[in-house]
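yo

u said u wanted the structure for the complex thing, so here. seqs first:
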Amino acid sequence: MTELATMDFHPQPQAGEPKPWAFPAPERGSLDNGLTVLRCHRPGQQVVAVEVLLDAPLDAEPAGLDGVATIMARAFSEGTDKHSAEEFAAELERCGATLDAVADHPGVRLSLEVPASRLAKALGLLADALRAPAFADGEVERLVRNRLDEIPHELANPARRAAKELSKELFPADSRMSRPRQGTEETVANIDSAAVRTFYEKHVRPATATAVVVGDLTGLDLDALLGDTLGAWTGSAAEPRPVPPVIADDRGRVVIVDRPGAVQTQLLIGRTGPDRHDRVWPAQVLGTYCLGGTLTSRLDRVLREEKGYTYGVRAFGQVLRSAPDGTGAAMLAISGSVDTPNTGPALEDLWTVLRTLAEGGLTDAERDVAVQNLVGVAPLKYETAAAVAGTLADQVEQHLPDDYQAALYRQLAATGTVEATAAVVSAFPVDRLVTVLVGDAAQIKAPVEALGIGEVTVVAAE
Amino acid sequence: MPMGHTATAQAGSGGLTATEHRLANGLRVVLSEDHLTPVAAVCLWYDVGSRHEVKGRTGLAHLFEHLMFQGSAQVKGNGHFELVQGAGGSLNGTTSFERTNYFETMPAHQLELALWLEADRMGSLLAALDDESMENQRDVVKNERRQRYDNVPYGTAFEKLTALAYPEGHPYHHTPIGSMADLDAATLEDARAFFRTYYAPNNAVLSVVGDIDPEQTLAWIEKYFGSIPSHDGKQPPRDGSLPDVMGEQLREVVEEEVPARALMAAYRLPEDGTRACDAADLALTVLGGGESSRLYNRLVRRDRTAVAAGFGLLRLAGAPSLGWLDVKTSGDVEVPVIETAIDEELARFAEEGPTAEEMERAQAQLEREWLDRLGTVAGRADELCRYAVLFGDPQLALTAVQRVLEVTAEEVQEVAKARLRPDNRAVLVYEPTAPADETDADQTDATDENDEEAAK
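structre next:
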């Protein structure tokens, strides 16, 4: 039997006429209590997404209490003036809702998702949590113990262990960014309900908060709904907190977190660079995609599809924290894992890819495909209410205008190959990258030293 | 239960409809229109998964899925990825016990390209498949195995529990990722034979969902897929049926370098597609879904003996489903303490059944999960294929949530009583050891009990 198939072949089809799509524009307003509200109607999206941003950044945590913002965020769903912790969880689930809360460098973010028909009730619960959290001693104590139990699990995970080490290397020891977002065993153990309440009273108020509501809002009187729920939340006026600058040491060097016996080495190679306020951002997004956005990008074309060293290596830029004056920063990084015996060869290839890119630049074809993908996937990426709400909330959190994402798509389309090359080369300079390797030092140290990509130190995995 | 607490009039189907078609070569086609967003999802399910693999060739279905992205007669190298992404689409493929799926979500005006690409590899993969791709993707898949299972704490738990829960020789005894030895042993000829056996239009269902013109879409499907010859080389998978209960508690203790003690268990539950399976889903949700569940309240909130405690359901159609318990202990708590508490809670639940409030919460949670799944064109396309391949009727996808809402508390109690018993579970206990010496390069560690392997 011949391997040439017997089917009829046809030439590759041409695309049809594109249909217009634009990133949705939210409607901006505010409640009497000063809460900023962004709303966006998305027909057909039955699960409504609500994001609430609180101006309670990690750098506001008192000395020695790293993790208090995280414990506060979690404690929001552990009881209010109306419900015990168990009752609150039950009431939320009765709405078919999920509520997540995360504390990060820019602030605390609560994310609610609920079917539109039960939005009123779920918004009531969310408002109770913000307005009158119980912060009961016993519940906070339990959250603290639970958090302490989580830490060893995180340290045992190679990707998370690498992220922790990179932050420690990049940022000065007195910077909050150098330390784990959710605190360490020492600092978390110091947290109690009084500390949580103090942090809450100091940093949580409607005047410095924003709510984003996205979904199919047909038939909902959202103004009345919000007025009855989040509108009942009160608090004093306050100025937004000043944002400290981000300082990082990106001298080229290598840190191996020793994990004897590991069958793979986790790579995390990073530094800091411009955030979305910088004019270079669209070109940086484009260039970074060409370097490592997908399995046909430069890194995976070699490391995965030619050599088979990895399941996938990605390059990305992720905003750490932004400021209105543009002094914020993003983490620019390459991450992935490679098998232990090929760690040296994989890093050598990775550096060769970076050097080749710096010497020869991107091709027009690469740039075109990247633009077509980054711009073309927008309607897919923003199909759900949660995706739209997430990006709108990011914009607020990063002090960007509400039409930022819509404008970004136009800028990407207008960015040329030369600009994208310049941006990615300056984002990933071969001699200014901090490399963290979580792996078996006995096997990988010598081959990595031989590459000459910086001084190699070994630390215990703990 | 009354239907009074459904979130929408159509309870999840949102007024969606689907039409069914069949080409002369046996390819089944499901189309569903939705013009809200200018996107279209293409999903192709082949009725082949790891349950079809034979001894000594575990992991072949998944390795083969990777090879499907390495080019075909008219598509060079990584062209499939390049063309879809260059058209503003996203794509992937995954392999589970029961099926292999491939999907592209495209801007609506690029739909024809995705159909052309899927047809090209369905009809002509072997024109491009060579040793170089085989060797390369073998290495990629081995690294996928290391990354997702072997190099993370508890990573091989799913594999171990599955092997306990389904006896030696059972088609579900091994998981889709396969063993390193079998991945090494697979040959190019194995891959060719696998394609010739399973990759036929009459062994697949194609769904297209979104902003489409059904008539035009069907014409394109006929044009690109219509001439691919059908063939009937496929043998039915080995019988996966087993007695309703295991009849004894199976148990394995793993001593490994993990951060904390853990108790995991797999309960044997009714097959997917049955009302009893929906009842089991509700039982597991009441007992261990979310932060108001009985086990969470008992172990995490009250006893404070666990960091996390929950139940999940692995729905399977060709063998009993698995109810998946995962508890990580807090501090120095010993496993028997946890186990006693769980047995008490399960026994109490079997005796009392769920309260009305618990039923309401569990049904609301499962309903939202369905709304989420049907809320994207890709999710809908996948569910339509699922019901067409596994149960012969794609329309069942649009009414699935109603069926969950119709289950009664009595049915939930009944399944709990019959199945959530100590003599119907396989148990895996993790006891941490001190950090390993540098000798043991084959230590097994890792996280989530994902039953899917992805190409990307």
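The radius of gyration of chain A is 24 Å. Chain A touches chain B through 90 residues (CB under 8 Å).
cya
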